[in-house]
Amino acid sequence: MMKHSTVCAGIDIGKLKLDVALTGSKARLEADNTAAGHDTIVTWLKRHNVDRIGVEATGGYEKNLVRVLRRAGFVVVVLQPLQVRSYAQFRLKLAKNDKIDAAMIAACVASVEEFRDAPDPRFEAFAAAQTLIDQLSEDIVLYKTRLEMAQDETSRAFWKQEIANRKAQARSARETLREAMRAHVDLAAKLDLIVSVQGIAEKSAIAVLVRMPEIGTLSREQVAALAGLAPYDDDSGTRTGPRHIMGGRTRLRTSLYAAAFAATFHWNPHLKAFYARLRGNGKTHKMALVACARKLLIFINTVVARGTPWQPMHPAS
How far apart are CA 257 and CA 159, in angstroms? Predict the structure, then answer.
């Protein structure tokens, strides 16, 4: 009986150049990271009957190629650089160049056992818009620091105007994104569910949905891990180390932490009581607040999964 073998390809992404390698084959391809180069790669991959493709996340240089490959019907797995490098270390592969990296990515993606569905293409533009809003907000924080340090009136007037400009741009970008998302009935319904959770403003709901489109389809453990809010063990033998968070989606975690801060101290009775209990048990302020951010994300995931709004906690009589 003939054993079926999945043909996997790995693509090393560069700003200008793309290197492609296959598992179980010495076939290699080098192409430009342009529309014409992408078409060349698609033709070449089809000729070699490739089933699955791995690419390494490179901060954006891979996005156009990934879009083209998925549109052509390929299963594309976007790997984190840490995954590929750790896999190479496991294989005791110390050498590194573009062609070697492409082969290592191919081998790495061949070992992947679980696959997520391709992301909703609508969210690519939404994520870009949310990143712009985040960057404008970061500029405002930076400019406020510069304003505080400015000594002369000319500099102070300049930074005040820059802050006002960035705030206006952020408001406009936020409203544009809000209208674009609410134009989709399913996304508008999810936003309404998220906003129903006490302490979640619409801008936070948008940030959460954009940064985690899978919300409502995953378990509480999975959403916590994706946000980088899951507590991981650090034990060995008789030693019990402190639990810690790591990894995850940084911008999502930042939005959740900010929302949790306001919700915990002002709006959400559940989180207020939870925070007080953790502090009473000796947890530090930051540890308790991180736990509240995780709890808030679980609340959000639950209401979206159930499709029913949050039910506020009634004061004890």
Answer: 28
